[in-house]
Amino acid sequence: MTGSARDFFDSLAADYHRIFPDWEASMARQATALDALVRRELGPGPRKLLDCACGIGTQAIGLARAGHDVVGSDLSPAATTRAVAEAAARGVVPPAMAADMRQLPFRNGEFDAVVCADNSLAHLLTAQDVGAALGDMRRVLRSDGLLLLTLRDYDELRRTRPAAAPPQVSHGADGRSITFQLWHWHDDGERYDQEYFQLVPDGEGWEVRVRRTTSWALPRTQVTDAAAAAGFADITWHAPETSGYYQPVLAARASRRNT
Question: Within the chain, what is the greatest distance between any pair of CA atoms?
């Protein structure tokens, strides 16, 4: 059985960095790619930016280092607590708070750009929830503000329906660890249950940590349609080979509100 997304990410917060072979290098690469998209779309910064699924700070810290005025929010209180600590340890201070992306606690038009990265939208399992999240991202953006949203390549994954994701070996200050996922596809071919296995050093042996969650394999056309319905225009998908980001990136502009 899978638990709630909040329970999953609360449990994973202490070990989330182990998903990446080198978390520090991943932060730098992702910030470089996302910062380039922000500057390409909005011009020279810095910009006021919301990372609405900030996790432990993977994107928020790097974007703050790039000079942006970053605020982070995430469903997981454990993740945002760690994000604040990790940011402070690196000399940046983007505030982060626990918040649901479907009900963001920010003013209308407060941000120049909103980032929703690392496949976060896929943890919403209904069209109503996806629409609510995109609608609130639109609400907190200024007119013509920028949305950057990244997802796995679900067009390909729905075609192949893999049973597992490739294992990752992490090399960090706390030693090597191994992360791998088993995927159990639902009969509808749209959603899948994930089992996250992490092998963490424990003396002369290994401790096995297992977490479970469910994701929705959202194809690009469905995300594009939902973004348009939420009030976004000029919607473009950027492939990893052109953006430098490791997942496909949707870039869209907030349509001007009627007055």
Answer: 66
Token pair listed for 174: 């706390």
Residues in the chain: 259
CB 147 within 8 A of CB 227: yes
Q: Which pLDDT tens digit goes with each residue over 94-106?
A: 889 999 999 999 9
73 and 96 Cβ atoms separated by less than 8 Å = yes
| Sign of torsion over alpha carbons 130, 134, 135, 136 | positive
Structural domain that includes position 191: 156-216
Residues 6 or more apart in contact with residue 126 via CB below 8 angstroms: none
Give alpha helix (H) positions in 66-162: 77-89, 127-140, 154-160
Identify the residue with better confidence: 257 or 147.
147
CATH number at residue 249: 3.40.50.150
Which residues does 140 contact at the CB level (< 8 Å), separation at least 6?
Answer: 50, 104, 106, 107, 108, 109, 110, 111, 114
**Are residues 223 and 98 both part of a single domain?**
yes
Q: How many domains does the chain have?
A: 2
Same domain, 104 and 181: no
- For residues 51 and 49, give the distance between their C-alpha atoms in angstroms, rounded to a whole number: 7
Residue 39 shares a structural domain with residue 24: yes
Q: What is the mean pLDDT of residues 41-60?
A: 96
| Count of CB atoms situated within 10 Å of the CB of 43 | 8
Q: Find tokens 């760690």 and name the residue.
A: 82
